[in-house]
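[Q] Does anyone have a clean structure-token version of this?
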Amino acid sequence: MARQSLPELWLLSDARNDAVLEDALARLPSGSGFVFRHYHLDEADRRARFDALKAVCADRGHLAILSGDADTACSWGADGIYGPPGELGKRAGLLRIATAHGAREIFLANRNGADAVMLSPVFPTRSHPGGACLGATHFRELAARSEVPVIALGGMDRERAKALGWPRWAAIDGLS
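[A] Here you go.
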């Protein structure tokens, strides 16, 4: 996938937004991105849930990205993979989105040829209550080190994305 065609808006899944994912995906602009995590499910249930949500994504023209390894992503028919930069592999045909929380992971994403970096947490988030966050200034400093597009994650919603002035962003609660 060409990097310039990377979606600007991304929805991530987890246990707390599972019940509203179909509606949330239907509300996203056509051509958005979806990262399926669902670590709380066993493998058979996780696969069944991915298949159901992948069908919604296909109907809306969204990318369906799997948090997992390249072999699983290929066998499940995912458009790409999401994970630590050292674990993305080099599988042709898959969009590779590296997770990053600091400079070392940005460096690894650059070195390993990731297609994008999801940098977090920008702001305080329910996923990590009381945890440290990057803040706008440090986020921008780290993002400037990336050789690939950066997707802002962590406490993001439309208002915060607008205030941050960042073109690509992702959310769990902020889009659910």
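[Q] Thanks! Anything notable?
[A] Helices lie at 21-27, 43-60, 70-76, 103-111, 135-143, 158-164.
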